[in-house]
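Hello forum,

I keep getting stuck at the same step: I have a sequence, I want structure tokens, and every attempt I make locally crashes halfway through. Rather than fight my setup again tonight, could one of you with a working pipeline run this one for me? It's a single chain of 227 residues.
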Amino acid sequence: MDLTGEGNVFGLDESQQPTLQDMHDRLDDPTIYNGVRDKGGMVVLATYRCPKPVIGAINGAAVGIGATMTLPFDVRIACDKTRIGFVFGKLGIVPEATSGWFLPRIVGLSQALEWVYTAEILTPHAALAAGLVRSVVPADDLLDTAYDLAHRFTQNRSPVATALARQMMYRNCGLAEPLEAHRIDSLAMFYTSKGEGKEGVQAFLDKRDPNFAARVSRDMPPFYPWW
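Reply #2:
Ran it on my machine without issues. Output:
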């Protein structure tokens, strides 16, 4: 992604002072959309809303936006050549791409702050130890490892149930109390049990692979999206 400013800052006059209220009331106004909104964050939000599992195979350097844009991935796999850096402090700027929401949830608040404060480049094994990546594999095995995991995520799985589960995990973990998650769980279980769940149970009883025919594009339950 290439962001280029010429003259004023990304089309926003330097005398203008956008406010947090603008970010609520005018989020999609062209002046705010083009001149203020963090484009990396917009990519991350699109990934967050994605109904499919997302796996990152990190080969080489992932620094700055290269690191933060991987945070909404469900799984990150590194190779022995991977280097990761949240280097914003060295540049006099702040972490972007909604990393303040994702990174502490993945590695814990203290670890996230240490990485941001020090702005150091992490080895893949340091990222592994903190839980940022799932595994470290030889570079030549990186894509095969990611494809194998994607196959395990999707083979004989209901696309609708997977899409619901992904959003339930991300969104329910931030709710105020378990009762709020229970409301969503109950609806999701009700609708999937009426649909793909019948085929899944019958396939289990028949000792065969299930034939999940529902599709996210047309068969999501009526309460989706609930947020």
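The first helix runs from residue 20 to 25. If your local run keeps crashing, start a new thread with the error log.
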